[in-house]
Amino acid sequence: MNGFELRSFPDAAALAQAAAADWLEKVTAAHRAGLPHLAALSGGRIAREFFSAVAATAQAGGVSFDSVHFFWADERCVPPADSESNFRLAQERLLKPLRVSKDHIHRIRGEVEEQTATAEAEEALRRWAPRNGTGVPVLDLVFLGMGEDGHVASLFPEALPEQSAAPWVYGAVTAPKPPSRRITLGYGPIAAARAAWVLASGPGKERALQESLAPDGPTPLAEVLRRRAHTRIYTDIGAH
Q1: Region 65-80 average pLDDT
Q2: What confidence tens digit (pLDDT) does each residue in 117-132 have?
Q3: pLDDT (average), residues 57-69
Q4: Does the structure show a pLDDT above 70 at 76?
Q5: Residue 152 in contact with residue 193, Cβ under 8 Å?
Q6: By residue range, what is the domain housing residue 39?
Q7: Facing residues of 71 across strands?
Q8: How many domains does the chain have?
Q9: Which of 16, 74, 93, 152 would bridge with 50, disulfide CB 3.0–4.6 Å?
């Protein structure tokens, strides 16, 4: 297994605040250097606290997000105003409070036909991201959550062998829980990203995290860790 860094916190609020502070350092550095910062967001329970912490801390510190372009690690195939939409969560908790320019928001259109949505999402990412030696677009930072089964983005254990070998940047998949139809970033772009931060939070996930940290772990998070040289994991699992 390649290297990972495990940062433990007493609760979700402390986790969210620490991850927010660390991200704002990267955002500030990119802004000062005049460089774009390409970030892919995820949904989930911890994302609510994280987005709110980022917005509040950025507003208090006068941090500019003018250099940041927002992409998504996954999206449910629902309209953008739907309560299940990952975009809606980010819009309400992060993008709107920070007054992010629409030109910097590259959402996955979950309301259109899946093939169209995946093609559009890949085209948008390739338009902004440099490519590595194998032609995979390189994000600056990918945020991932972790489910009770060790899934990340909308990459689930049941489809790991198939999806691990898939060459796509974004793909349409079926999740084992509703809403079942989703569009997700593939393992290739997650592995190629300059940084990947996992926000692993919540009860009932101790076994999934333990399995994911094992060299031969059967979870999607374990597959991400195997593919990357370094991954940072923020977690409050086992703190209670």
Answers
A1: 98
A2: 999 999 999 999 999 9
A3: 97
A4: yes
A5: no
A6: 12-225
A7: 40
A8: 1
A9: 16
Query: In 10 A of CB 82, how many CB atoms?
Result: 15
H/E run at residue 233: strand 230-235
The answer to whether position 88 is within a domain reads yes
Contacts of 216 (CB under 8 A, 6+ apart): 222
Tell me 152's DSSP state.
B
Question: Can you give the pLDDT at residue 1?
Answer: 46
Region 178-201 average pLDDT:
98
Q: How many CB atoms lie within 10 A of CB 149?
A: 18
Residue 232 lies in a domain: no
The predicted pLDDT at position 9 comes to: 98
Q: Is 5 domain-assigned?
A: no
Of 153, 162, 145, the residue nearest 209 (C-alpha): 145
CATH number at residue 180: 3.40.50.1360
Contact, 145 vs 200, CB < 8 A?
yes
pTM for the predicted model, two decimal places: 0.97
Find the helix or strand (DSSP H, E) in which 83 lies: none
What residues have CB less than 8 Å from 226, skipping those under 6 apart?
Answer: 1, 2, 215
Is 3 a domain residue? no
Q: Report the phi/psi class of residue 153: left, alpha or beta, with left for phi > 0 and alpha for psi in -120 to 50.
A: left
